Amino acid sequence: MIVDRFGRRFRNLRVSLTAACNYACTYCVPDGKRLLPADHELSADELVYAVRLLVDAAGIEKVRITGGEPLLSPKFDALLPAVMQLPLQDVSVTTNGQLILRKLDVILGAGLSRINVSLDTLDAERFRQIARGGDLETVLAGIEALRAAGLAIKINMVPMRTRNADQILPLLDYCLERGFELRFIELMSMGHLRHGNAFGRDFFGMNEILELISTRYAFTRTDAPYDSTAVRFAIPDAGTFGVIANETEPFCSACTRLRLASNGFLYGCLSNAASHDIRPILLEPEHQALARLQSLLVRALADKQDLSFKGEVTVMKFIGG
Ligand code: SAM
User: Fold this and answer.
1) Cβ atoms of 252 and 7 closer than 8 Å
2) Which of 77, 132, 247, 292 has its CA 20 to 30 A from that of 157?
3) pLDDT in tens, 133-158
């Protein structure tokens, strides 16, 4: 097992199926390139082989399938059932929800038990402004279908001061009523947000989120697992919510995440643009592939920043949010 001086190792793998997305969220990309996949994306078979090798070489225990928009990719239909067969503690999917109804058979057929759906507002007009694509009602219908099928659902919201901070309480009510866990993701200074004033203007951090919630609910902070990204809170007799507080309470010192981009590059840290091409390794016989992957993982782990989240020019939809 490869472990660094902070005791960190890779346990969680995020696999970006494709960089293509049917949305162009204002915080993720400048408009215009949403549907473009990355150059030379790995096939479903290559991705599954890569994940299998990483499970062996790094001791990966949990896999999250993400993107871009994973449900947009034809590879999803083969990849999800194949990843579900691997010896993992947990498999989950992060989606914008637009294509859930179309992919319901694949999701249920593979036996997925939990899913994260990104939803930044319950206001249809605001939804179009933020996502620059998609349709709110379709997303909500998809979520209801998953709920009816018994999946555990987390909703991801990125609160932004000028765009959807007033949606924090409506979204929390919506989630509590349905037994979903709402996750507020603090805006990250990624991609185009590294420049200009949008990040500073729209950042709406954990303290402000909690202050707003306290106007309606009493809540207490609860324990979270060692390498959890979220600070979690319980509202007695109502449910739970979490904050992924990259800026306010960075979790870098306990970060166990590794990312595999759709073009076969590994990223050890969100705050570091360094990447490592595993495509040549995938052509090797398995024992050689594993040995080469080990040394590459040592470099990827060394890419992790020490203690604070800094953001990067890399774009979430490319490296897998
Ligand atoms: N298309 C899928 C979705 O929308 O969930 C998966 C990919 S998306 C890049 C994954 C997550 O990254 C989403 O929940 C999105 O809100 C989040 N994200 C993207 N850019 C972000 C940023 N600059 N700050 C915070 N969260 C961001």
Assistant:
1) no
2) 77
3) 999 999 999 999 999 999 999 999 99
Please say if the pLDDT value at position 320 is more than 90.
no
Q: Which domains can be identified in the chain, with CATH numbers?
A: 12-318 (3.20.20.70)
How far, in Å, is the centroid of ligand 1 from the Cα of 321?
5
In angstroms, what is the span from residue 284 Cα to ligand 1's centroid? 33
Residue 281: how many other CB atoms lie within 10 Å: 21
Rounded to the nearest whole angstrom, what is the distance from the C-alpha of residue 291 to the centroid of ligand 1? 33
User: How far are the Cα atoms of 31, 167, 243 from residue 121, in angstroms, in the given order?
Assistant: 19, 6, 16
12 or 196: which leads in pLDDT: 12
- Cα separation, 278 vs 189, whole angstroms: 27
Task: Identify whether the C-beta of residue 19 lies closer than 8 Å to the C-beta of residue 317.
Answer: yes
Atom of ligand 1 nearest to the CA of 189: 23
Q: Which residues line ligand 1 (CB under 6 A)?
A: 21, 27-28, 66-67, 69, 94-96, 118, 156, 158, 185, 187-188, 190, 193, 316-317, 321
Closest CA to 25 of 81, 83, 98, 75: 98
